[in-house]
Amino acid sequence: MSFSGNARAPRTPTPPQGETVASYATYLEAQKAVDHLADKAFAVQLVTIVGADLKMVERVTGRLSYPRVALGGFLSGAWFGLFVGLLLSLFTTPGTQSPLVPAIFIGGAFGLLFAILTYSFSRGKRDFTSTSQIVASSYAVLCRAEQAHKARELLREIGGVQSGWPARPAAPLTTTSPSDPSAAYPPAAAPADPWGSPTVPPVAPPGPPAPPTGPPSDQPAAPHAPSGPPPAP
Questions:
Q1: What contacts 123, CB < 8 A, 6 or more positions away?
Q2: I need a labelling partner for 168 at 20 to 30 A (CA). Which of 51, 102, 117, 215 fits?
């Protein structure tokens, strides 16, 4: 939905362009805001009304029955017969009977018959009347960037103005002190030892057997020399 003067609407679906200058909960409020801009001699061809979160709303107005369907069909046919009778009365000569009244009854009869047949074919699947609307949760008023500031200043009189500056993102929460260097720079992992785990020392290969220090067990032992001086003769 857009209000434009000499500007033409694009033939192909095109996203709206401009900055959000105001936001309202109902379409009547957004329409009032654009009308306020027009009263202030603002270039409203630069303004666009955009509805967000569209929904289709069907409001039930009543229950259908054969008498109600027949009455509605007769009235619709009677209006059409009245129109046809007025056209035929323009071509009738003076002194002849006017075809207006017969045309009304004939049109009403055809409308009644058509309405009853249509309702009977539905087999009771839709025994109510309703009206449908497309509504939005909110309506934003957009304006081209070159005139957005002026539009905000004019709309401050009726409210709903939104700033054009984007909201600053919230700072992330930190659980460690920023002065702790170990939190910002974690220690590097030690290189893996190709021979196994660095905590277990490698096992040395077994050496050659030690040579025997005593005489063999199958030979007699040598006599023990006395440790004292020899006896005198």
A1: none
A2: 51
